[in-house]
Specification:
mainly alpha; globular
C-alpha cells in the first residue's frame, strides 16, 4: 500500500527552495494593516476617520497577558495620534489589571473623543460597574452603548447582558424603566436562558413559577434546548409524582431525542404505571415511540413486534418502513431487510431516503465484489433521478466499479464525461484522478500525465493533487513537484492578492466599523471585534488582500478559529490558474499551526506526528475549541464525552469532567492519545486509523479486513461510510500538505 510515506514525499517535493521560512507575525501584521490603508487611501473620503491611526504598532502585552507592558508600550507609542484609541487601549489594560478608577476614566475619555469607539467603551464601563456590584450603573452604561451606532449582532449581545442582569436580580423589574424592553428581550433569547432560569427557580425553591416554566417546556413549544431542560430535571432528581402522565411520556420522548435511551425507558414505564395513561397519551404516538425506543435500545425483536402493532393499527410511514429494514439488518436477516428496503422505494419513490436506499443496495453489491450488478444499480439512480443529490456520486461509483472490475474502457468513458455532466460536483477532482488512472490502465500514459499535471496544480492542497503528484513520479515525471512562490514578504503577498482580485473602495461609513473592530482585535477582544468586521468579511469577499488582512488580524488577536474561518475561503476564492504560485505566507493562512506548544508536547508524548494531529484538528473543529457537533462531540479534536471519560480512566486523570473537553490542552492530550491507540490497533496504517477516528474502530476493522489487499487508492475509495471516506481524504490531504509546506514555514516536525 502506498500514499502515506512522509520521507519519500519530502525527498521529491521540497524542490530547490529549502530555506527555512520565518517571520515575526506581530510586527509584520501591524505593517500589513498600515499598507492596507495606504492601498485604499485614494478612495477614502477626506473627512473620514484616518484608517491608519489604529494600526501602528500593537503591543504584544495584550496577547501575552502582560498588561503592565501593554500600558508602557501604549504610553511610549508616539506614532498613535488618535487619543480616543490610545485611551481605549489603556482602559483595556487597566481593566485587566483591576485598576477600575483608571479604566473608567480612560473609557469615558475614549467615548468622548472617538465616536467609533463610543459603544464598546460604554460596554466596558458597564462591565466594570457589574464587577463592582453597581448593577443600575451597569444598566445605564449598556443602554448608552445600545444608543450608539453599532451593528445589529453587537446590539443583541448587549441586550443579552441586560437580560442577564434581570435574571440575576428580578427586583430590578420594578425599579427601572426598561422592564418592558427586557420582557421583549426574553422573547428574543428565551431559548438560551430558559434552562438556566429554570435551574435557578428550582434551586431557590420557587416551585410555583418553576412548574409553570416546566409545563411550557414539556408542552413542546420550546424544543431548541429541550436536552438542557431535561438535564435540569435530572440534576434536581425531581420525583415522577410531580409530573402528569402526559409530562412523564414527554420526558421519555425528550430523553430518547437526547440519546438517553435507558432513561427514556424508565420515564415511559413511569407513565405506563398511571391508570389514566390510555386517556392521556394518544395510542399512535405511544406505539411509534415504544417501537423506536426499542430499536434505539437494540432490543430488535421487541422493536419488530411493536412496529407490527403500529402497522396493524395505523398502517405504514416512510420512517417505520425504513426503521424496520434497518432493524432486520441489525438482526442479520438480510433477505427480510432487503424486502423492506425495496418496499420503501416502491411505496415512496420520491422520498429522499429512497435514493439513499438505492445507493446502499448498489454499495452492497460493490462491497461484495459484484461490480456489474453494482454498476446496474448505481446507474438506476443517475438515470432515473438525474437531479437528486446523489446522482453525481452514483455516476462516479459506476465508473469506479467499472475500474474495479477491470472494465477500463467503460471506466474511462464515465470519468471522461463526468466534468461535463456534473460541472459543479465536489467529486470533480476525484473523477479527474480516476480518469488518469483509467488512461494508465489502458497504457495511455502520456495522456494520463497531462490530466495529472493539471490536477496537481488546480487545487495543490487537495488529496487528489497529492495523489496525482505521486502517480506522476511513478510514471517517471520529476518536474511536477510542489514549488511554492518563494517570497517571504507579506507586502508582496498582499500585492499579489490585489493583482488577482477586485479591491473594494473604503467609504466614509466603513471607517467607524473598521476602526472599532481592529482596535478591539489589537486589544485581544476578537469575539467583539467580529461584530464590527464581519461586514468586511462577507460584503467584500472579492477583495482578497482585505480578506488576508482580516485573517492575519484575527490570528494576531489570538483567535485561530476566526482567522481560519476567513483564511480557508481562499481555497475556493483563488482563481484556479493562480493556485500553483501561492506566496508562502498565504499557505500559512490556509494551513495554520495554532496551539503549537500543546500539539508538539502531546505528539512527542504519544509518538504521533504533530502534523497529523494538526490535520485532524483542522478538519474536526476548524481550530475552534468551543465547538460542539450535533451528536455532542466536543472541542478541537471532537471527543465524545463518553470517549473522554474512558480516556481519562486510562490516563488515570481523576479531574475529568465534560467541561474540561473545552480546554484546548485537555482536548488535544486526549485526542492525541486516542489517535495513538488507533494507530497501534491498525499497525500505523494512517488511513485506517483515521477511518476509525471518524467512523468507529469496529467499522474500520471490518473495512480493513475486506479491502486490505486493494491498492491504496481503491482502499480509500472502499471505506464503507461516505462521510468517513470523505473525512479520510480531507485529513490525508491536510496531512500531506502540512508535511510538504512544514519546512518552508518552520512547522514542528519538519
Amino acid at each position: 500500500m502506498t500514499g502515506g510515506k512522509k520521507e519519500s514525499r519530502k525527498k521529491h517535493e521540497m524542490g530547490s527552495f529549502s530555506r527555512t521560512f520565518k517571520y515575526r507575525l506581530p510586527l509584520l501584521c501591524s505593517l500589513l494593516l498600515v499598507l492596507h490603508v495606504q492601498l485604499h487611501s485614494s478612495s477614502q473620503p477626506p473627512d473620514a476617520q484616518p484608517l491608519f491611526a489604529f494600526a501602528l504598532p500593537a503591543s504584544d502585552g495584550f496577547f501575552s497577558g502582560d498588561y503592565e507592558k501593554a500600558l508602557d508600550d501604549i504610553v511610549a507609542d508616539t506614532a498613535l495620534t488618535d487619543t480616543g484609541i490610545k485611551f481605549f487601549k489603556q482602559g483595556v489594560a487597566h481593566y485587566q489589571l483591576k485598576h477600575y478608577p483608571e479604566a473608567l476614566f480612560c473609557f469615558r475619555y475614549a467615548a468622548e473623543k472617538n465616536t467609533a469607539l463610543e459603544g464598546v467603551a460604554y460596554e466596558q464601563i458597564g462591565d466594570i460597574a457589574r464587577t463592582q456590584g453597581h448593577t443600575e450603573n451597569a444598566v445605564h452604561a449598556y443602554r448608552a452603548a445600545l444608543s450608539s451606532d453599532i451593528p445589529a449582532r453587537y446590539a443583541r449581545h448587549l441586550r443579552e447582558k441586560l437580560f442577564d442582569i434581570l435574571k440575576a436580580d428580578s427586583s430590578l423589574a420594578s425599579q427601572v424603566s426598561w422592564f418592558t424592553e427586557a420582557k421583549e428581550l426574553a422573547e428574543i433569547s428565551q431559548e438560551d436562558w430558559l434552562p438556566e432560569f429554570l435551574d435557578t427557580l428550582i434551586s431557590t425553591e420557587q416551585m410555583g413559577l418553576a412548574d409553570s416554566i416546566l409545563d411550557e417546556c414539556l408542552s413542546g413549544s420550546h424544543t431548541a434546548n429541550e436536552c438542557k431542560v431535561y438535564n435540569v430535571v435530572m440534576d434536581h432528581a425531581l420525583a415522577e409524582s410531580l409530573f402528569t402522565t402526559e409530562q412523564l411520556f414527554r420526558l421519555s420522548e425528550i430523553a430518547a431525542d437526547c440519546r438517553k435511551y435507558d432513561e427514556g425507558s424508565d420515564w415511559l414505564h413511569h407513565a405506563l404505571d398511571r391508570e389514566n395513561f390510555g386517556e392521556s397519551v394518544e395510542k399512535k404516538r405511544y406505539l411509534l415511540h415504544r417501537a423506536m425506543l426499542n430499536y434505539r435500545l437494540e432490543n430488535y425483536s421487541n422493536a419488530i413486534r411493536w412496529f407490527g402493532k403500529y402497522e396493524k393499527s395505523f398502517g405504514l410511514t416512510p420512517e417505520v418502513v425504513l426503521t424496520v429494514a434497518r432493524t432486520y439488518r441489525a438482526l442479520r436477516k438480510m433477505t427480510k431487510s432487503a424486502i423492506w428496503y425495496d418496499k420503501h422505494v416502491e411505496m415512496y419513490p420520491s422520498h429522499r431516503m429512497s435514493v439513499e436506499i438505492l445507493w446502499y443496495r448498489a454499495w452492497q453489491k460493490e462491497d461484495a465484489g459484484n461490480y456489474k450488478a453494482s454498476m446496474t444499480r448505481f446507474s438506476r439512480i443517475w438515470r432515473s433521478r438525474p437531479r437528486s443529490r446523489m446522482a453525481d456520486d452514483s455516476y462516479f461509483r459506476t465508473g469506479l466499479c467499472a475500474f474495479k472490475g477491470e472494465m477500463f474502457d467503460s471506466a474511462l468513458e464515465h470519468f471522461e464525461a463526468f466534468p461535463r455532466k456534473y460541472s459543479s460536483s465536489s467529486l470533480l477532482e476525484a473523477s479527474r484522478y480516476w480518469h488518469a488512472r483509467s488512461l494508465v490502465a489502458l497504457e495511455k500514459k502520456e495522456e494520463a500525465a497531462e490530466v495529472l499535471k493539471d490536477l496537481a496544480i488546480t487545487a495543490p492542497w487537495d488529496y487528489y493533487a497529492h495523489r496525482a503528484r505521486e502517480l506522476l513520479r511513478q510514471l517517471g515525471d520529476t518536474t511536477t513537484v510542489f514549488a511554492p512562490e518563494s517570497t517571504e514578504s507579506i507586502t508582496g503577498t498582499r500585492a499579489w492578492l490585489a493583482s488577482i482580485s477586485d479591491p473594494a473602495e473604503f467609504k466614509k461609513e466603513d471607517s467607524a466599523k473598521w476602526t472599532c473592530g481592529v482596535t478591539l482585535a489589537l486589544c485581544g477582544r476578537t469575539e467583539i471585534a467580529e461584530y464590527f468586521l464581519e461586514s468586511f468579511e462577507y460584503g467584500r469577499s472579492r477583495d482578497l488582500s482585505l480578506q488576508y488582512d482580516l485573517a492575519m488580524l484575527y490570528e494576531l488577536g489570538g483567535n485561530p478559529a476566526l482567522a481560519f474561518r476567513v483564511g480557508r475561503r481562499f481555497a475556493w476564492r483563488l482563481p484556479s490558474e493562480n493556485r500553483r504560485e501561492l506566496p508562502m505566507p498565504l499557505w500559512g493562512v490556509l494551513f495554520p499551526f495554532p496551539y503549537r506548544e500543546t500539539i508538539v508536547e502531546n505528539a512527542a508524548r504519544y509518538g504521533v506526528d504533530p502534523a497529523l494531529v494538526t490535520s485532524v484538528i483542522r478538519q474536526e473543529s476548524i481550530f475552534d475549541h468551543h465547538i460542539v457537533s450535533p451528536v455532542g462531540a466536543v472541542g478541537l479534536m471532537q471527543i465524545m464525552p463518553y470517549t473522554g471519560e474512558d480516556i481519562a480512566g486510562r490516563l488515570k486523570d481523576t479531574t475529568f469532567t465534560e467541561k474540561r473537553l473545552y480546554d484546548a490542552e485537555v482536548n488535544i492530550r486526549y485526542g492525541t492519545y486516542y489517535l495513538r491507540q488507533l494507530l497501534d490497533q491498525f499497525d500505523d496504517n494512517i488511513a485506517c486509523a483515521l477511518a476509525g477516528y471518524n467512523g468507529g474502530p469496529h467499522n474500520a476493522k471490518r473495512w480493513h479486513a475486506r479491502n486490505k489487499n486493494l491498492d491504496f487508492d481503491l482502499y480509500v475509495e472502499s471505506i464503507g461510510y461516505t462521510e468517513t471516506r470523505n473525512y479520510v481524504k480531507k485529513v490525508l490531504g491536510n496531512y500531506w500538505t502540512y508535511d510538504t509546506i512544514g519546512e518552508y514555514l518552520n512547522y514542528p516536525g519538519s
